[in-house]
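step 3/5: co-fold with adenosine-5'-triphosphate
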Amino acid sequence: MQPAVEFRGISKHFGAVKANTDVSFTVAKGAIHGLVGENGAGKSTLMSILYGYYQADGGDILLDGQVRQIRSSQEAIRLGIGMVHQHFMLVDNMTVLDNVMLGTEGGFRLASHRAEAEAKLREICARYRLDVDPLATIHDLSVGVQQRVEILKQIYRSANILILDEPTAVLTAQETESLFEILKLFKEQGKTIILITHKLQEIMDITDTVTVMRAGRVVGAVETARTSKEELANMMVGRPIENNLPRAPYSPGKPVLEVKGLQLKDNTGVSLLDDIDFTLRAGEIVAIAGVSGNGQSELMEILSGMRLPTAGSADFEGKPLPFKRHDPDGLPLVFRDLGIAHVPEDRLRDGVVKNFSVMQNTFLGYQDHIKGRWGLFDFKRIAERCAGLLKEFDVRPPNPDLRIGLLSGGNQQKVVIAREVLAKPKLMLVGQPTRGVDIGTIEAIHTQLLALRDAGVAILLVSVELEEVRALADRILVMCGGRITGELPINEFDTTRIGLLMGGTHKS
Amino acid sequence: MTFEDLHLGSIVVSTVRNAPVLLFAAMAGLFAERSGVIDIGLEGKILASAFVSAAVAFTTQNPWYGILAGIAVSVVIALLQGAIAITQKGNQLVAGIAINIAMSGLTFVVAQYFFQQGGRTPDLGEARLGEVVLPGSAAVADVPVLGWIWTQLLGGHTVLVYAAFALVPLVHWVLYHTRFGLRLRACGENPHAADAAGVSVERTRYLAMLIAGVLCSFSGAYLAIVQSGFFLRDMSAGAGYLALTAMVFGNWRPFYTFLGCLMFGFFGAVQIQLEGVDLPVVGRIPGALIQMVPYVVTVIVLAGLMAKSVAPKAIGVPFVKSR
Amino acid sequence: ADPKLGIVYDAGGKFDKSFNQSAFEGASRFKKDTGINFIEVQASSDTQAEQVLRGLARKKLDLIASIGFAQTQAVQKVAKEFPNVRFVLIDGVAQGNNVNSVTFKEEEGSYLVGVAGALASRTKKLGFIGGIDIPLIRTFACGYAQGAKSVDKKAEIVQNMVGTTAAAWNDPAKGGELARSQFERGVDVVFAVAGGSGMGTLQMAKEKGKLAIGVDSNQNHLYPGTMLTSMVKRVDNAVYDSFMQMKNGTWKAGVTAKGLKEGGVDWALDANNRKLITPEIEKKVLGARKDIIDGKIKVIDIRTGAACPA
Amino acid sequence: MTTNDLPRWATAVALPLLNLLSALLVAALVIHLLGEDPVESMHILINSAVVNPEGLSYTLFYASTFVFTGLAVSLAMHAGLFNIGAEGQMYLGGLGITIAMLAFDATLPWYLLIPAGMLGAALFGALWAFVPGYLQAKRGSHIVVTTIMFNYIASQLMNFVIVKFLIPAGEQNTASRVFSQAAEMPRLSDWFPVLGDTPLNVSFFLAIIALVIYGVMVSRSSWGYKLRAVGLNKHAAHYAGVKISAMIVVTMLISGALAGLGAVNSIMGSTHYLSLNFVGGAGFIGIAIALMGRQHPVGIFLSAVLFGALTQGGFDLSLEKPNIPPEMVIFIQGLIILFCGAMEYLYAPVLAKLLKGKQA
Ligand SMILES: Nc1ncnc2c1ncn2[C@@H]1O[C@H](COP(=O)(O)OP(=O)(O)OP(=O)(O)O)[C@@H](O)[C@H]1O
Ligand SMILES: Nc1ncnc2c1ncn2[C@@H]1O[C@H](COP(=O)(O)OP(=O)(O)OP(=O)(O)O)[C@@H](O)[C@H]1O
Ligand SMILES: [Mg+2]
Ligand SMILES: [Mg+2]
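step 4/5: write tokens
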């Protein structure tokens, strides 16, 4: 049978960077094909070429055996290619329906086609068991639902080849599962799927074949059934990945953070956090598990001073955290000076200033600590410190003057973590530290966090990845609906039980 | 003169008559900015079209040729702005300001060169647009209230006034109920999403600029051919900036923008009537201070009522394809 | 030898439809009559005024005409530096024994058109539209009001200013709009002292069939039939005379205030408004004119600090 | 448009020069159409703006004001605030000077009087920027709109104040009285007679000092770092502990003070009195300068000098060439902003191709 897609010797460079070098492989019709590789390996670039964003410097793309010139996304769409981007391509202030219709409106007057489109959309939702309200506005929807809208768009356009670039990075286990159900339905209909992910378990679970890329080249193409996670990881990184990182025995010290009756209501009076109580000790990692959107983000924001609670308090080293009355403006600095470091969940929004250089981002939040003579920045010292940091945390490329926006997500994350670690905090708040990060980097980040713990720092970790929770936590708190629904030590780790707690089954 | 002498009717009519200059320009700005292109160059386009339409109307003695020529020039400028913003990916604010400054100088230079009247065109005389007399005006003219409504409020304007008011629902319809409007809004909010959905961001934005050029030209034509009957240097006198203000004030939505324009017109008219009037309590306010009224009111309304205006998210950012 | 002459306009420029333009016309007439050329420059700011005056003085000009009160300080300063160059300052008073300051009694001319306006008005509501609210413009307004009230004590003056920036002199749309608003409030004669903005006023009067009064130069020809008259302020004559005196060697420094008597201001009666000026109006205006010249009527000049009596 | 492929000298020198030349070329074309000799005209322009020492001195005099308004706009821009109100702020700054002078110029010696005037200018400029800043910070009122409104209000207020209170009795000129000699900024021509009798004064050095302080504060101080963080990413700035509201208000205060200080050069350095509309568009030119100078101190300085040169050279041009009205200069200004500011990369592809061709 003809392969659905064939890449023949694709090359692409950006300036001096060779993003793709002589990439060739085929994707069989009706298959789910995995694409894996480190951050910056060239996966997204290759897919962008397939979707018409970039033109390859050399090589051909064949669809159903025919060489095709794909010069724009419009042409790709016409050829039946659909792409779900890692950063959602949705217009925030429009409804689901309008987003789906955009580009395939059907005619000049929307009114005459809207009803039709809505009916079709509802029919699709029913058929694929996608629970989405066509008339909801995007910014009111959770990421998981937004993801579904992206899928809906592709089904609506009856794409035959579906590219998914790290679709599961922001999804919970359940959401991932339901996404995979849909993909399987797709496959049954004979559609072809290319799936990029950093989670090898997902590759094992769902793909038929998998291609591994490294530094712009294809380094392996195998049938999933004939390989293993370890082998894939080895191919990707060029060395085996350690699953069980060494850690000191659990011996928590004195309490660092005591949260007492913390509450948060939004300005319409809806309760976001309710009666949160817990204690965090020196030298332990407490992980908060839960479906995202259940109050974890808000909790982290409050504890880092970015947001004010409506009631309750938190003691840091025995003294209450100085929450202000009305306005959290400036409060994060006060908390940071107390010794609370924070790796924010949304690194691009909160954690870095994209248009600052890497170097300037290495002291975001600590800008008042690096004054030299005259109270001005001592750039020589900063540069030295930065060079050391880039080396120690293996940031690639180790160029301090690059705009950080040009770094891959994983490397941006390394910079943020390095910055917060080097501040020598007493308490570290870490939100989703490895979202969208490749396995090699995950290993590095986990190693850093464990070293911090072993050095006696208290760490509060929020993660939707149970794998990550299992790998790092000493104790697990589960949150649901703004409440803590359960607590268990790591040796009682039990996916089913945690899943139940995450679903709201109360403390047992 | 006393407070009771304020002529409400006259204020309303004056508001209606003054609105088109701002209205056309504000609607033009709306198209440009909802597509993601900042249009601070409204002023320059108004001025250029005012000059060209007056010059051509005078030369041909036909206002319609004037209007057509005004459209052509305004469109050329808008497309130049588009080329800078969309193709060149240059700074849109700079482009707009440059156009305003260049047009302020060029219109004078050219007008002076051709007409030798100090940057003024000769009087248009008969080459102005006539006022529409509604049927039956003569019959109802003397009926109280109704006569006023029929002959002064509704009738007695040029077609451009009706066009300006009809434009508001039309723009609303285009923006929210057509394919083009949907794409336009998407390009202004998240061009990457539009692009990924197969919409050509460039084409949409160029089209928006084209429409902006056409609409803006009416503002200039109204100023020159209807209101004044000639072109005079810098005669736009800040109308472009006020239109922009009305648009920001109206949160980039047609109807609220319309209200913003009317607000300027209304308080402008009130201010005219207040000058030299003995007000209760405060007495007679000096003219210069009375002139502040529309501006002070705008600030108060902005601060008090309509806090937080939300611009289209992608406004002013050149669209560069990448994921 | 022929004298070397220069003229410096202020920010309004020589086409301001107001005193700069009038000065330009006077100088041009002089050139036509004598064949003697003159240098002309526009100074857009007070700093530039000083710069250009000094520049011209260095070129050893014999006489420099500075138009507009904004050049007062500059003239005073540069005149001191160049005692051999002579200056004539229009609309302002500068010290120096090589300076001739020419001011106008705008209030007197305005008084006359006020009389004419009040007589021609049926509603006895008169309009005044000024460019910017400054003493010079207020002087026009006050003289106008005094004249109108002298005809009818109950005559009402509705007064509006176009704006507060330089744009106020170039906003005919606003000038027209103000006139329209005044007409709607019952005004039927309007006096426009607003440069280019006044063009909108005169035109609106024509459109609405109301009467308008022009200013500075004789504007009667613009809209015959609705132009009641014009308050002419003979800046052109002042410049012309000054140049001529220079040529004839009769130029003298000093301060001249040119009123009706000196031919500095007047009302305009010509073929264009002949029909509108009834014999009664003509008689009354000429009577008032004579009384002012004879000193029987004293028109108050508010610039002296006096309050406007009308 | 990528400039990655171009060497630094090309983007920093060659491109701006090409753009400047293009703007002048278009201007030359128009001058030719007006029936004047473009080459001669350009010669006059350049000669009178930079070659002739007196002209250069005027150029730098105008530039001194433009530096201040340019800095005012630039600083606010770093915080993501588009301050269109420099015009009004400078106008009010003039009032600040005037009040200080009317109060003290008979009693204080020059070394106290000049700082007093500067203080007044900064204070009043800051005051006028405070309300828009405060409304933006606390109420989210769009600063573009409020500053435009405040320009109008400033001109009305100043019209009122000057006419009502400041014109000396019996005077025609819409200006305050002339201040005492003690209030005059020392002129550079006192030390360098070659500059001729020009108003270039120590404000020029103040402008340079302001540029240096601005450059150091913005790029080397933690305050400047926070300022830019607010402008680039408010969320990250909040995360970094910046008090955003306070930052906005303070930035606008400083911005307004800088604009206000622009009045020092115009009033205490040249006219020595406050007159109606003395700002004459310097605030708006400040916007163009900030944009063209990329908010970089060197860029601001060069743009300010360029605009100063155009003001001065254009003035002489219209003086010598009767067919070229002063408005021509305004047109050329617009062209330069268009080519150098908005279409900066117009020639980048061509240049890149040329350079590549050479290498290959
Ligand atoms: N627009 C661009 N301009 C310049 N270089 C680019 C661009 N896009 C990608 N690159 C380069 O190409 C390389 C491959 O990037 P790509 O996005 O394809 O990696 P990836 O495999 O998708 O990484 P990740 O797993 O982080 O998503 C990167 O290292 C980067 O340096
Ligand atoms: N304009 C650009 N110039 C140079 N490199 C770029 C550019 N845009 C993206 N890149 C490169 O593309 C790669 C991927 O960038 P992208 O922004 O997609 O991050 P990402 O790896 O997908 O992030 P995440 O961690 O969320 O997966 C990075 O290696 C980055 O260096
Ligand atoms: Mg990628
Ligand atoms: Mg990625």
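step 5/5: annotate
Chain D has a mean pLDDT of 91.
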